[in-house]
């Protein structure tokens, strides 16, 4: 049985309306009950609470790091966490990198980042989002010195109002958020930034998130309710959305990840997962398919890990071969 959207039926005066309401309430109640039972019986969920992790997903990343050593406390790393809400992966990244390392979380939904982590609420499919990510890692300025979400605009505007106002980066930042024309100074400034400023990209996009928070999205997000693509229970639909978001993460890696850098991406398996894995192999010298023990047996998720990014990659070839 699938959840019924009463509004979509357009039957406000129909005699079927009471029945539809009862079916929807019953479905939601049973679904919630099953979810709660699974949560209470899950050892990783309990362990996450004990360790103050924001979700059990933290253990998936720790398993990946224990096996493949993507983090390094002995050097400064610049880490981009895509789909970071609710922040468990950023917590692990903060714990397993040096104090000087920079960690930036990006999510289309609002989320207060963990201590020591910066964040922006933005759409990774937007060119301006990539420009902001490049600016953040290139300029090495700090975000969220006071962990306080701006009520309308997200973290970068909080920083803009309180810190960038007297910063040398003010004009660059301002130009990025202005309309960009082919001859604008923002494009010239963008070209001067470091070409590949990131050492590691981790992507857990597709993590479930309460849909009631969607009204808090800002003007830099595009159709967030549609694009957030939470799991629906429909295997084909979930897989297709997953491929879309994995491709977006891979494009980000092509554009921003340094040569020899690493990449971790969650994928929901299906008919196109081998094609995505093939694309990753064209970008990285070593590609691994991995399912952590902390991932539920019934889950279709796997993690594609790319290590040692190649140089001089043809992006068009990656997505057309």
From TrEMBL:
GO terms for cellular component: mitochondrion. Residues 53-308 form the Ribosomal RNA methyltransferase FtsJ domain. It comes from the Eukaryota. Belongs to the class I-like SAM-binding methyltransferase superfamily. RNA methyltransferase RlmE family. Keywords: Methyltransferase, rRNA processing, S-adenosyl-L-methionine, Transferase. The keyword Ligase does not apply. The active site is at 266 (proton acceptor). InterPro entries: RNA_methyltr_RlmE, RNA_MeTrfase_FtsJ_dom, rRNA-MeTfrase_E, SAM-dependent_MTases_sf. One of its GO terms (molecular function) is rRNA (uridine-2'-O-)-methyltransferase activity. Pfam families: FtsJ. PANTHER family: RIBOSOMAL RNA METHYLTRANSFERASE, RRNA METHYLTRANSFERASE 2, MITOCHONDRIAL. This is rRNA methyltransferase 2, mitochondrial. The gene is NCAS0D04060.
């Amino acid at each position: 049985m699938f959840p019924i959207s009463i509004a979509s039926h357009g039957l406000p005066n129909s005699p079927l309306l009471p029945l539809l309401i009862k079916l929807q309430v019953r479905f939601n109640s049973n679904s919630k009950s099953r979810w709660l039972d699974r949560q209470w019986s899950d050892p990783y969920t309990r362990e996450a609470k004990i360790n103050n992790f924001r979700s059990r997903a933290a253990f998936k990343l720790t398993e990946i790091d224990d096996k493949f050593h993507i983090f390094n406390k002995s050097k400064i790393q610049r880490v981009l966490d895509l789909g970071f809400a609710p922040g468990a992966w950023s917590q692990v990244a903060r714990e397993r990198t040096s104090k000087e390392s920079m960690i930036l979380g990006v999510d289309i939904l609002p989320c207060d980042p963990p201590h020591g982590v910066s964040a922006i609420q933005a759409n990774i499919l937007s060119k301006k989002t990539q420009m902001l990510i490049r600016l953040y890692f290139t300029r090495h300025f700090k975000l969220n010195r006071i962990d306080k979400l701006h009520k309308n605009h997200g973290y970068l505007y909080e920083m803009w109002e309180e810190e960038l106002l007297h910063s040398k980066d003010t004009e660059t930042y301002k130009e990025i958020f202005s309309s960009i024309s082919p001859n604008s100074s923002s494009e010239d400034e963008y070209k001067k930034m470091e070409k590949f400023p990131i050492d590691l990209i981790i992507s857990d996009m597709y993590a479930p998130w309460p849909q009631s928070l969607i009204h808090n999205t800002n003007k830099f997000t595009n159709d967030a309710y549609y694009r957030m693509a939470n799991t629906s229970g429909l295997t084909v639909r979930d897989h297709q959305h997953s491929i879309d978001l994995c491709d977006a993460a891979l494009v980000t890696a092509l554009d921003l990840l340094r040569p020899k850098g690493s990449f971790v991406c969650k994928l929901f398996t299906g008919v196109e997962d081998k094609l995505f894995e093939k694309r990753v192999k064209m970008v990285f010298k070593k590609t691994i398919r991995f399912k952590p023990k902390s991932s539920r047996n019934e889950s279709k998720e796997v993690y594609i890990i790319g290590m040692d990014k190649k140089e001089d990659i043809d992006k068009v070839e990656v997505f057309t071969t």
